[in-house]
Amino acid sequence: MITGVVVCQLKKLVVFDLDGTLIDSEDFIVWSFVEAGRLVGVGVDPELVRESIGLPLEVVVERVLKSAGASESVVEEFLEVRRKIARENWRRMVRLFPDVKPALEELRGMGFKLAVASSAVTERIVEFLEYFGVLGYFSVVLGVGPGVRGKPEPDVLLRVLEASNASSQEAVYAGDREVDCVAAQRAGVDFVLVDRKRRGTSSWSCTPRITVESLLELPRVLKRL
């Protein structure tokens, strides 16, 4: 079901968030934090982790472990333990959403440029997309790095626009979280909420241009933009 206001505007670039939009990784991320906390002796609030997904890793770690009263040395140990857990387990616990490949195929066939912008490091994004066989659909894949802040700051999206030779008016950003919406708003890009779990936006500080429940709805939506 498509909801929201549709504005007539020629679009040529579709930018996607990674976690929760292209890959089903939410439960894995929560598990990895809780398990790493257990191994280093820190209680981790799973709901706080879930609410923080979409922010840069260092921000999530600071938010979650600070609330647990962890010392700096424990934080460093936690980061190393979680990194090892994630590296060893993501392939068996993370999956590509089933609507991704058909949606990307159709969008590419319609002539859209496709890109990915995430608060993860670029190497991680590329590794996931390559593993799931969809890296070739994207002309630009960018994450955080030196001088590039994660969401809700607009840096990553602005870098994608620059690399794609597209204006903010020519792009849309598809994501699943409020932090994605805020980043898109700050970049001047129309935001499409991918609300597979029908969580709604009643508590959000910004409003999506359009809401879809599946990426398969995107081609129809974008024909009208």
Structural class: alpha/beta
CATH superfamily of the largest domain: HAD superfamily/HAD-like
Largest sheet: 7 strands, mixed
Number of strands: 9
Output the CATH class name of the largest domain: Alpha Beta
Strand order across the biggest sheet?
Answer: 1-9-8-7-2-5-6
Number of helices: 9
Distance between the termini: 17 Å
What overall form do the CA principal axes indicate?
globular
String of helices and strands? EEEHHHHEHEHEHEHEEH
Strand percent estimate = 15-25%
Instruction: Return the domain count.
Output: 2
Secondary structure: helix percent? 40-55%
Structure description:
The protein is of the alpha/beta class. 45% of the residues lie in helices and 16% in strands. It contains 9 helices and 9 strands. Strands 1-9-8-7-2-5-6 form a 7-stranded mixed beta sheet. It has a two-stranded antiparallel sheet with strand order 3-4. Helix 6 (122-131) links the parallel strand 5 and strand 6. Helix 1 (26-40) crosses helix 2 (46-52) and helix 1 (26-40) crosses helix 4. The longest helix is centred in the middle third of the chain and has 22 residues, at 72-93. It is globular and about 55 Å long.
